[in-house]
Amino acid sequence: SLEDGIIDNQDRDREESAASLRLGYQFQTDKQAFVRVFAHQVEYDQFLDRNGFNRDSDGWQADAGLNFTITGKLQGDIFASYHDRSYDDPRLNDISGWAGGAGLRWQPTQLTSVGARISSNIQETTYQYASGYLQTLYSLRVDHELMRNLQLSGQISYRDNDYQLTNDAPVDARSNDEIWTGGLGLTYFVNRYVFLSASYTHDRLRSNVPGDGYDVNRIWLTLSLER
Which of 92, 140, 168, 193 is most buried, by CB atoms within 10 Å? Predict the structure, then answer.
């Protein structure tokens, strides 16, 4: 909401809790079948959002898939999943359905690695005509070690956000966003605990709602400490 020129987004503040269990069975030296289950709970700081909805929810996800190694330089995984999310407010439609994901990691040389992934997840929103949205993410990332302590990275991703609309949503309600992201980054490792990074990203959003698209350029300078 907008008050005195200030955008109030406090109704987005929330706590998310999750627990998971994974079981695997290695039936060949280069293949492992697995199942995993996630339990997820969301509790918003405000009982009602700006549109009068209680968006607290409980959910779970079950995956079944396969980890594999094709060669010593190529590893991957593939899985099918089922999502289920129930909302405390009866006006918000529950979300459930089948999805899946896959990933590959290729290391053509000791200095270069390439990663690709497809994944799907239920995401939160405070949009008045949706309980949430199902996001499908396609991503590709390349890392290359220019020097022992200097790494160059490039990435591109595409996100398809499919909004799960309420029963009273108008025909022109926001139902889909497509977001392209591309970026480059450079990381300098000062030592094993400290590193500096500089990066540039460009986001392009296109929506089914006319005039709601945008383009954003970002430059990041980061100092990180790890132990």
Answer: 92
For the stretch 56-99, pLDDT in tens is 999 999 999 999 999 889 999 999 999 999 999 999 999 999 99
Q: Which residue(s) pair with 122 in the sheet?
A: 134
2-225 homologous superfamily: TonB-dependent receptor, beta-barrel domain (2.40.170.20)
- What is the spatial distance between Cα 47 and Cα 16, in angstroms, rounded to a whole number? 15
Q: Are 89 and 54 in contact (CB under 8 A)?
A: yes
- The candidate with the shortest Cα–Cα distance to 44, out of 76, 4, 110, 88, is 88
Amino acid at 47: F
38-51 confidence digits (pLDDT tens): 999 999 999 999 99
Beta-strand ranges (E) seen in 148-193 are: 150-165, 176-189
Q: Which long-range contacts (CB under 8 A, 24 or more apart) does 96-105 make?
A: 97/134, 99/134, 99/136, 101/63, 101/65, 101/77, 102/76, 102/77, 102/78, 103/76, 103/77, 103/78, 104/74, 104/75, 104/76, 105/74, 105/75, 105/76
Any idea where the domains of the chain sit in the sequence?
Answer: 2-225
pTM: 0.89
117 contact partners, CB below 8 Å, separation of at least 6:
101, 102, 103, 104, 137, 138, 139
